[in-house]
Amino acid sequence: MKKSFKYLFTIALGLGVLSSCSEDSLDPTLQQSKDIVTSVNTVNDLQAVINGAYNRMSISDYYGRDKIILGEVFSDNTSSNANSNRFVAEARMDLLPTSAIAETLWARLYTVIGSANIVINAEGITGDEAEVNQIKGQAYVIRALAHFDLLTFYGQQNVNGGGLSSLGVPYVTAFRDENSLFPARNTVQEVRDLAYADLTTAKGLMDDSVGSVEYINTYAASAVEARIANYFGDWQRSLDAAEEVILSTNFSVISKDAFLNSFSIDGASNSIFEIAASETDNEGINGLANIYQQGSYGDVIALPNLAAIYEDTDVRGVTTADKEGVITRYANGTLRNTGKYPSYAPYKDNISVIRYEEMVLIYAEALLETASPAEALIWLNKIPAERGATLYDAATKSNILLERRKELAFEGFRFHDLARTKMDIPFVDVALQLHEGPTYGSFNYALPIPLAEDDANANLPQNFGY
């Protein structure tokens, strides 16, 4: 399945037809939204709406680019060289409530949640019950993941003392509910627990068939649960959820020889869930390849400090005369990610959302935190063993975080790893790094609530420091 599903969201309305050929048509008026909800009657209708949710996840202001890039430029992995003046304020961590990215990321994630809620709350659907349940289960996972992603950027858990009782984001469970047009911010704990509940419901609805990695199944649901539990330090839950994926034996750590190619093919053996792209349906110049690689944009460059953590033999490091790596050093000394999301044109690479290697490292960290360091070391070393890197002598928190940085670089994890472990953001390059390494707890560990949202909804107090 490629993103041709972008054009499948066609639902009969009381006064006509709403087609998804434009993003505007996916954002109907309140009256139209009532018609949409009442017009979802068959499995095909339900499938069309969930396809719309997947499509919205692929747009450049979510997994198509911005969510991933923010996780990198907020960290010590990358910065912006202002080649096309993109991600400069973001790399400075100098955003305002009026900043475009604060608004577009917020808005996109809530439109994804809106599509999921249409599916979840649809009643009286005609068709095979198992198929209906499978689609609804996917919607529950999408709703949980989108709220979690919102929380990691807009929640106050890492700001000014933060914690579980601090302000999170509104957990929205109905599509344009007239009685709740101005939702309040749930606490961080409430968002976490509601996401867990959605994932539990999802796994009860879906079967275990792997199918296409471009659709969510129970293993993807468990992987999302493991990711959330890892972020919050719910170690037993993280262990159990990651183990559900690992014990399935449906996935494997990709080999050194196949590693680079795995980012340019669909459904590699390490892929748990990925966003579809094709030669005719992709984010083009606004996607990940064009912001990372040298070209018309090419604003996001790798910092030398990141390149330095790799051994010469490590396939994830810098290309040398003896090996091709993820990072390319250009004649002017600029370092760029060219190995992940490599297809510059026609930008047809699927976008990995969850790889098996992440689950292995989550599993290792959970084993360490639940007093099984020897077993944690076994799982930690499964990654460097397949990358041309030296194995670790011990499973420690710092080693696991180092391996996560090596393995998951350019995929949007680094900032969140620093935040969840209550670390300052390292200031490693006075020449290239635009922010100066904010200390943990600083206001810019969270994005501002968009001004338009803050002004329109008195139940959305602005984040600290903005």
From TrEMBL:
Domain RagB/SusD: where? 336-466
Q: Name one GO cellular component term.
A: cell outer membrane
List, alphabetically, the InterPro entries matched.
SusD-like_N, SusD_RagB_dom, TPR-like_helical_dom_sf
Stored SUPFAM superfamilies: TPR-like
Which stretches make up the SusD-like N-terminal domain?
Answer: 32-228
Q: Residues of the signal sequence?
A: 1-22
- Name by which UniProt lists this protein: RagB/SusD domain-containing protein
Domain of life, per lineage: Bacteria
Similarity comment: family membership: Belongs to the SusD family.
Q: Which UniProt keywords apply?
A: Cell outer membrane, Membrane, Signal
Instruction: List locations, semicolon-separated.
Output: Cell outer membrane
